[in-house]
Amino acid sequence: MTLKKNGEDRRLREAACDGLGKPELVHENPWFRVCNRGGYFTTEPVQRGLAVLPVVEGRGIVLIRSRRPVVNDTPLEIPAGGIGDDEEPRAGASRELAEETGVRIGDLSRFEMLPPLSHSTNRNPMLFYVYKVVITAGEFENRGPHDHEVESVHLYSFDEIRKMIRSGEMYVAVPIAIILRFLDNPETRAGRRGK
């Protein structure tokens, strides 16, 4: 079931599980709240979420190694984060890209919205925004500093990424889903054959 309001899926902006009754707050912190919705326990973000797929001129994808103490690792991911209360989603995508990769893109029209995704349909009632932005090799090479949560920023070819996914070196589900959806797109495949 797609719940759309003004052409946008309403689950991007709110928990749309109307039939489960009024939520009972079980726990809350600055990042998420846990609610009991009629016996279904949900984990709901305080901010709406987004992810950015930075593609470098049809050559590859920019990945980051993020410090993740919970899994005691620095896994490969794509830029992602939360949207501020008064922030437009594209502006949030631009900000997250700059914070996590150092690549600054001021022209928000370059951020193309892709179909939204869910982190976990059994625990999270909201979808998150996914944007693709095509950047030049020069924009990547001339990037500024990134924030402290990111250990390093890399450009990998599509083939390198496929190998890292197959080998398990890249194992975070959401970035893999976004990347594979992009790589499986007939337009992406046609563009690669033409090079």
Task: Describe the structure in your own words.
- 25% of the residues are buried.
- Strands 6, 7, 8, 9, 10, 11 and 12 form a 7-stranded mixed β-sheet that branches. Strands 3-4-5 form a 3-stranded antiparallel β-sheet, with no helix packed on it.
- It has 195 residues and is an alpha+beta fold.
- The chain has a single domain, classed as Nucleoside Triphosphate Pyrophosphohydrolase, CATH 3.90.79.
- The radius of gyration is 18 Å and the shape is globular.
- A hairpin with a 3-residue loop joins strand 6 and strand 7.
- The model has no long low-confidence stretch (mean pLDDT 90).
- The chain has 5 helices and 12 strands.
Describe the protein's topology.
Elements: E1 4-5, E2 8-9, E3 24-28, E4 32-37, E5 40-45, E6 48-56, E7 60-66, E8 76-77, E9 80-83, H1 89-101, E10 111-117, E11 128-135, H2 137-141, E12 150-157, H3 158-167, H4 173-183, H5 186-193
Parallel strand pairs: 6-11
Antiparallel strand pairs: 1-2, 3-4, 4-5, 6-7, 6-9, 7-8, 7-12, 10-11
